[in-house]
């Protein structure tokens, strides 16, 4: 079957891997990206970026100081948002940015991810008409400033205030304490001249909770901070170092009334407050990012899996049989067990990410028509997915990094930076433990609705079903029936964990605790229920994709799905066993099936990651390069280290040589 990555001059081990492929890699890539046309566009963009001298990197970013890296990123961003702006569709923009700039952030990241979405969904018609065309034309750059030094999670306790002054029809925006400074917002420090700032709305001394306001931070001509505004960069971080995450203090800055984002909640000139149709519509920008970050995090894991798989096919170390040749490390079962589940999870996350984006679009349509009834379901799902996927992705990338041995520790592999970027997602857009509790709140309602026989939305319909006996291992032979048996077992487990958590909670309440304290006593169990609900959704979403896939890729997707299910079940064995729904024999059966899956997938491993269709430039990894010629490339990469600009470093000349000289002269 064709693997279209084969080229003359490639590492022969990689070529051999590609020759054993049993499916058409282009078919799978087209399915992943939605169509052949999308796949071709993806390639076209990759090729054009590589050929554009404006995007050329004289030396890799890894060797640049932070300031120089920020500079290079800003320069490329200007090219993207001027020269390239009309050459790509909005949905192609993330790929263009990844290709041209990389994953560590760029000056307009928050402008796109949160500033524009906030204005689009929360500004009233007047404000939108005035500001959106300017923002879309990049006449101004904006960000989303919500988190403060003292509070990120608990938005109700944010301290920044917007106090309405009826006499002038203005809001007075103020940072009352040091810890009330906005702290963390991306692109706030140096790039943005505007921000959507989240403040407690105060009218006639009454606090009406967090609301969003458009605030100009810097002069449009000089880019100097405006009077009353203190703004800057918070310093280096684990990753995202080309992003100027910032701080901001506002000293009684006045803005006109109409700069409150008033599509949903409104303040009239006389100070009358009208609440929104759903209390949390002000939180819409967060739901937007949570709904979109699932897919992009799937892509980060896909990159790591591509690096680890290709490198493991090229790397030869040790022998399996005495006297045999040194083997490709991909032939070790431990290596396969480390890497193949990451390939499967990356596909699963990408599929789930595509489904949740569609669900977000439907919810938004409803809200535009005055219907917010889909929002609770979407909030529960995006909260669960963002938590599970970012954690899974972090673990997966770290497994991939370790699977590359010493070279995985080098920035040449691209993996340390990938890990740093990925794990940021465990914290931003709501700390994972906190967001899982949001999901759990919804599940607790679902358990009650199911008890009362009420209708349940599709994502929690399983709560209303009855459990039968687990048929895992008892439906021998037929893979379709085995998949169904496992999905039913996962449904049972998700339901059982939600009901157990609900009963534990009720027991504590009956024991005399207030609801909230009782909740805190059961949150570990609540979060377990949320994770399994989310993992069930991911498995179901993968299954839907498998069932709708064309026959040409059905078999390889089915193999991958089997591995996914078997791995997830073994990973969750404790939950499957706890109530006796599965027995030890069934877990042993799942393990046996998992080891068989590793062998089945082995010939297609490289081709499965080739179908992620990530260009060398985007992958930015010496170990993961398509042609597999890693050793020469490693040496060329290291030669660019600034420590190699001279043979004798000043540090050696100034300190080490005199020390050695002094010690020699003492003899
Ligand atoms: C060219 C394009 C390129 C794009 C490149 C993009 C690159 C992007 C890279 C971006 C990187 C980083 C960006 C990061 C940004 C940020 O981090 S912004 C800050 C995010 N902050 C948070 O997420 C804070 C987390 N906290 C909260 O969300 C809330 O405070 C919390 C939900 C935890 C609690 O809120 P409360 O108001 O106290 O509400 P609560 O009492 O718990 O719940 C009441 C009720 O409301 C429901 N609820 C809560 N939130 C929502 C929501 N968002 N939508 C719908 N419903 C919501 C909740 O479930 C309760 O319901 P119930 O029925 O009463 O149980
Ligand atoms: C890379 C990055 C980019 C960011 N970009 C932005 C941005 O653009 N705009 C912006 O406004 N913000 C941004 N943030 C801030 C981010 O949204 C917050 O850091 C995040 O929401 C977590 O809040 P926190 O820092 O207050 O953590 P905390 O809430 O202080 O968390 C600390 C610990 O307390 C626990 N905890 C807190 N509350 C509870 C609870 N109720 N139940 C159980 N445990 C709890 C958490 O689980 C965690 O273990 C960014 C952060 C990062 C790391």
Automatic annotation (TrEMBL):
The highest taxon in the source lineage is Eukaryota
UniProt domain Acyl-CoA oxidase C-terminal: residue ranges = 483-661
Q: Which cofactor does it need?
A: FAD
Q: Acyl-CoA oxidase C-alpha1 domain: which residues?
A: 283-444
* Pathway where it operates: Lipid metabolism; peroxisomal fatty acid beta-oxidation
The active site annotation covers 429 (proton acceptor)
* Pfam families the record matches: ACOX, ACOX_C_alpha1, Acyl-CoA_ox_N
Q: Which residues form the Acyl-coenzyme A oxidase N-terminal domain?
A: 24-141
Q: What is this protein called?
A: Acyl-coenzyme A oxidase
């Amino acid at each position: 079957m064709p693997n279209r990555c084969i080229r003359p001059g490639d590492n022969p081990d990689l070529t051999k891997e590609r020759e054993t492929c049993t499916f058409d890699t282009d078919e799978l890539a087209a399915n992943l990206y939605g169509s052949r046309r999308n796949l071709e566009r993806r390639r076209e963009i990759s090729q054009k970026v590589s050929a554009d001298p404006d995007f050329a990197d004289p030396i890799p970013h890894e060797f640049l100081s932070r300031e120089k890296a920020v500079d290079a990123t800003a320069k490329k961003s200007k090219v993207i948002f001027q020269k390239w702006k009309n050459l790509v569709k909005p949905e192609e923009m993330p790929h263009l940015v990844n290709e041209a700039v990389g994953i560590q952030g760029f000056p307009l990241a928050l402008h796109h991810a949160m500033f524009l979405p906030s204005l689009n969904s929360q500004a009233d018609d007047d404000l939108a008409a005035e500001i959106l065309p300017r923002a879309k034309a990049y006449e101004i750059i904006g960000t989303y400033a919500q988190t403060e030094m003292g509070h990120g999670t608990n938005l109700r306790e944010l301290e920044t205030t917007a106090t309405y002054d009826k006499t002038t029809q203005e809001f007075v925006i103020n940072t009352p304490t040091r810890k009330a400074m906005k702290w963390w917002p991306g692109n706030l420090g140096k790039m943005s001249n505007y921000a959507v700032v989240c403040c407690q709305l105060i009218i006639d001394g009454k606090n009406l909770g967090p609301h969003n306001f458009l605030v100009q931070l810097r002069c449009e001509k000089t880019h100097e901070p405006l009077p009353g505004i203190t703004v800057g960069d918070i310093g280096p971080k684990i990753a995202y170092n080309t992003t100027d995450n910032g701080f901001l203090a506002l000293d009684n800055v006045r803005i006109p009334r109409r700069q409150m984002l008033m599509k949903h909640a409104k303040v009239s000139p006389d100070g009358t407050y009208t609440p929104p149709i759903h209390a949390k519509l002000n939180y819409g920008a967060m739901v937007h990012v949570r709904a979109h970050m699932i897919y992009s995090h799937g892509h980060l894991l896909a990159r790591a899996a591509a690096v680890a798989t290709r490198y493991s096919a090229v790397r030869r170390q040790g022998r399996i049989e005495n006297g045999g040749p040194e083997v490709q490390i991909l032939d070790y079962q431990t290596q396969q067990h480390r890497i193949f589940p990451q390939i499967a999870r990356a596909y699963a996350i990408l599929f789930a990410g595509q489904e949740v984006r569609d669900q977000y679009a439907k919810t938004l349509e409803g809200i535009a028509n005055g219907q917010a009834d889909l929002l609770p379901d979407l909030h529960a799902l995006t909260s669960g997915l963002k938590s599970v996927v970012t954690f899974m992705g972090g673990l997966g990338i770290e497994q991939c990094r370790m699977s590359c041995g010493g070279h995985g520790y080098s920035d040449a592999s691209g993996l340390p930076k990938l890990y740093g970027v990925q794990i940021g997602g465990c914290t931003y857009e709501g700390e994972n433990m906190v967001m899982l509790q949001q999901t759990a709140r919804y599940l607790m309602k679902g358990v009650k609705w199911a008890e009362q026989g009420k209708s349940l939305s599709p994502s929690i319909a399983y709560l209303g079903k009855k459990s039968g006996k687990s048929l895992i291992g008892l439906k021998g032979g037929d893979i379709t029936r085995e998949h169904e048996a496992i999905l039913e077992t996962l449904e049972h487990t998700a339901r059982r964990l939600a009901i157990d958590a609900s009963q534990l909670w009720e027991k504590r309440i009956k024991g005399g605790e207030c609801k909230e304290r009782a909740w805190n006593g059961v949150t570990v169990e609540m979060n377990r229920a949320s994770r399994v609900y989310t993992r069930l959704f991911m498995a179901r979403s993968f299954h839907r994709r498998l069932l709708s896939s064309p026959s040409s890729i059905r078999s390889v997707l089915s193999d991958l799905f089997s591995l996914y299910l078997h791995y997830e079940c073994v990973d969750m064995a404790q939950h499957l066993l706890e109530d006796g729904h599965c027995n030890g024999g069934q877990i042993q059966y799942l393990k046996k099936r998992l080891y068989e899956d590793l062998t089945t997938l082995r010939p297609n491993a490289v081709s499965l990651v080739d179908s992620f269709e990530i260009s060398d430039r985007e992958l930015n990894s010496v170990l993961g390069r398509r042609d597999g010629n890693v050793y020469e490339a490693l040496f060329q990469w290291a030669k660019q280290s600034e420590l190699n600009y001279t043979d004798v470093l000043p540090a050696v000349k100034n300190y080490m040589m005199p020390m050695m000289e002094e010690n020699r002269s003492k003899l």
